[in-house]
Specification:
The protein starts with a strand and ends in a 12-residue tail after the last helix. The protein is built from twelve helices and nine strands. The strands form two sheets. Strands 3-2-1-4-5-6 form a six-stranded parallel β-sheet, sandwiched between helices. The longest helix is centred in the middle third of the chain and has 29 residues, at 162-190. Strand 4, helix 4 (67-77) and strand 5 form a beta-alpha-beta unit. By secondary structure, it is of the alpha/beta class. Bound molecules: nicotinamide-adenine-dinucleotide. Residues 6-12, 29-32, 35, 63-65, 69, 73, 91-92, 117, 120-121, 235, 239, 242 line the site of nicotinamide-adenine-dinucleotide.
């Protein structure tokens, strides 16, 4: 398959490399020359511009920073990509923009799906992302093969926008559960418990959660995590804050009460404003 790939940053770079490994012809475009240089090393063709990247594409895949950029990019893609090209946005953006773009795409004769991912940079490089897809059943089926080349799971969440809805709900839960996990370790320490002992108990008791057993925020406890590397790498606080902000916007639009999610957004805002935006989101334990 011939794929126009837009946005070859931390995530998109690894994803495009896996598409090349999977036998696809990838035509790459990015506004950053260094991203393109890496893409070339991974076997991508480099397009002269957006139009050139998509003009012969069977599928267009984007992995971009935010909804405003995604909207501007697809405004140009539609009209230049051939009508049979399936448009797949894998960026994390707001639900409303995802739905709106799909409607515009349909009006202009294209099929489009939202397919945000969970898994981070390591999973993007390893081809083990989880894709949550919003779109029509037939478009989901058509995208499964190409998404499967970049991931370990491709799940149909529902109609357009449902992928983004699943992503923001999941990450709101993750943000709140990480803070609760950090608080539990902090309290355990103040009550005189050995933290490894608390981990051994809670990881086999009802407090167990992913933030504890797969991503423990305490250095030297549980599996190897960013906590063991000074909270470098991993999932940046700034990105967690972006996702929590998208979740709060979605909650407001839907009239949903999300007091834990809102508190998580407040705490991550303060943490990011204190200069920690680059650090892994589990570093919030340092504030406790
Ligand atoms: P990134 O900033 O590393 O990459 C984005 C790329 O898009 C950059 O290379 C940038 O130059 C390019 N770009 C920006 N505007 C462009 C334009 N108009 N035309 C062409 N290229 C353009 O970001 P990332 O970490 O790869 O994240 C990408 C998306 O994936 C975001 O929506 C993010 O929320 C989501 N995401 C990230 C992670 C993670 O751990 N990094 C995990 C899950 C989801």
């Amino acid at each position: 398959m011939r794929i126009g790939f837009i946005g070859l940053g931390n995530m998109g770079g690894g994803m495009a490399a896996n598409l090349v490994r999977g036998g696809h012809k990838v035509c790459a475009v990015d506004s950053a020359p260094e991203a393109l240089a890496r893409a070339r090393e991974h076997g991508c063709e480099i397009a002269a511009g957006l139009r050139e990247a998509v003009v012969e594409a069977d599928a267009v895949i984007s992995m971009l920073p935010n909804g405003a950029i995604v909207r501007a990019v697809y405004d140009e893609v539609m009209g230049h990509a051939p009508p049979h090209a399936l448009l797949i946005d894998c960026s994390t953006i707001d639900v409303a923009t995802a739905r709106d773009l799909a409607t515009t795409a349909r009006r202009r004769g294209y099929a489009m799906i939202d397919a945000p991912v969970s898994g981070g940079i390591a999973a993007a490089a390893a081809g083990t992302l989880t894709f949550m897809v919003g779109g029509e059943e037939a478009d989901f089926m058509a995208a499964q093969g190409v998404l499967g080349t970049m991931g370990k799971a491709v799940i149909h969440a529902g109609p357009n926008g449902a992928g983004q809805a699943a992503k923001v709900c999941n990450n709101m839960l993750l943000g709140a559960s990480m803070i609760a996990t950090c608080e539990a370790f902090s309290l355990a320490g103040r009550l005189g418990l050995d933290l490894q002992t608390f981990y051994d108990i809670s990881s086999k008791a009802s407090g167990q959660c992913w933030s504890m057993t797969s991503y423990c925020p305490v250095p030297g406890v549980g599996p190897e995590t960013p906590a063991d590397h000074g909270y470098e790498g991993g999932f940046a606080t700034a990105l967690m804050l972006k996702d929590l902000t998208l979740a709060m916007e979605a909650a407001q639009g839907a009239g949903a009460a999300v007091s834990m999610g809102r508190r998580a957004q407040e705490l991550y805002t303060a943490f990011a404003q204190a200069g920690n935006g680059r650090l892994d989101f589990s570093a919030i334990i340092r504030t406790m």
